[in-house]
Structure formats: C-alpha cells, structure tokens
User: Fold this.
Amino acid sequence: MNSVPGPLLADLTATVRATAHARSSACPCGAATLADRPDGLVVRHADTVAKAHPPGTDPAELAGRLTLATHHPGILLPPLDPAPVALHGRVVTFWPYGTPVDPEDPGAAPWEAAAALLARLHRTPAPRDLTAMRGPAKAAQAVARLRGAGPHPAAASVLRAWATLPPWARAEAPMPRTGTLCHGDLHLGQLVRHPAPAGPWLLIDVDDLGVGVPAWDLARPAAWYACGLLPPETWARFLAAYREAGGPAVPAEGDPWPALDVPARALTAQTAARAVAKAITAGRPLDEVEQSVVDACDRMATVPPQLAQEHAK
Assistant:
C-alpha cells in the first residue's frame, strides 16, 4: 500500500515521464518509485527523477536552496530546473538520476568522499538570506512523533537523553550562528554518482540545507561510532578525510569531541526516537541495532554533554 495519496503518485509518475521524454527522444522508458513516504515521494523515469517534497514546504525557501545547488555542481547535485512546481498541493522538483550508494556493499561506502564533500560545502560562502539548516528541527520532530506514538519501555530513556541537550539542539532556541553552510541531514543515502553510473560523488537532498553548526553534518557517523555501530577505523578515515580537506567543524588536530558531542547526542536521540516510534507502530520489539541506540541514550542521560561552542566562528 502506498503511504501517499494515489493521485499524487500517478500524476508525479506521469509528469516525470513527460519530463524525461522532453530531455531525450531516445528514452529507454524505465520507471521506478525510489521512495514512497508521507514526507517525500521520489519517482524515476529513465535518467530523470521527480521529488514531491514534504507537505508545508515553503516554495520560495526551497527555490533558494535549488539555486544554491545549481551554483555549486561539484558539491551538490544540480536540479534540472531551479524553479519548483506545484502538484496536488505539493512542491515538486526534477533532477538527473545518479547512482546511489550500494547498501549491499558496506565496505565500498564512500566515507572519504562524503567527508571531503562536507568540508567543501562548509567552506562555501552561504548566501546572506539563507535560512537556518533544519537538523535540530528534524530531531525535534522525531521526538514529537515518539511522544505521540504511545507508551513503550524505551521511551523514557530517549526523552531523558533529549532533555539533557541545550535548547538550540532541541530546536527550542536559535543555533549558534556560525554562518557556515550545512547540509543538515547527512547520511550515505544522500550521496550519488553523477553522471551515472560512475561519475564523481555528489550530495543530494537540499530540503534541510542552510546555515548553522557544521558539526551537525558529522554527527550521524560520530553517533554511530559512539554507539559501536561504525567501526573505529571507518570513523578515523572519515574524520581524517574531513580534516585533510580543510573542514572547519572540528579542530585540525586534537580532540574533536568538544565540537561533536552535542550534535552526536542529538542524532542519537533522534535515531532512537524514530526506532521506538516505528516499533510501537509495528507492534514489534526493538531489534539489536535499535536497542543499541536506546542503550546509548541511557548512558547519555547520566553524563552531561560537553557544551563547548562551535569550533568554527
């Protein structure tokens, strides 16, 4: 069963087909639904991808992010058109297809490429009118979903860990304004090779792009490392590649955790909140990975976070 209304999926599929055919008269006509969630529907036709953005997306703010991607094609995948369109009350954008990271081959995951792209993004001057990146807001949304999902034995652990964070990390106060351009939701699913199948790696998904604390973009792999889900050698490679590329989120040498601690804790709580909410909805127990992030929340609640200000000013 689709999690988005049928007419939207049908019309988005027809629209991306028409867009693909307008780009090439020799279209091979291969079609697929790449993501089907209430907060994001993504469909592909041959080498063209259409995305219906989350309900409530501000078209003007999104247009600014699309323009930014257009101006930095060596870092961000540029859209086919920087002007979004409307379809069934949703904002829709069109993109060239890129080859995603292979989830079946974790050893080939492009950690160094991701780190280098982040460093380049963080060194890119941000437009003066760009809004704040949405990382903390998305974490707060995950916790709100947990609170509304119903009772669960693990919920208290997540909420205690969340309560230890400073207000900016809970989207209850402005972020420290470094003026740094941030992705806002970095994970390996946000990288593609373009041109497909073997072009350079680029970052995708500009929905959360904005200015703020660049350590947030390193926080998910940092949290996985802290939870024992990312091997230490992989984390070391990622961090070294970011530093070698001149990334400003952490000091060039020495202990990175004063900068990373709060964002990593926030991403751990966000991940745990999503996991517990999904388990409640599905009526199933937590799996081993999900339990590990809940256990990390238990540990976090007993040790105050490092409240050092962002390294890069």
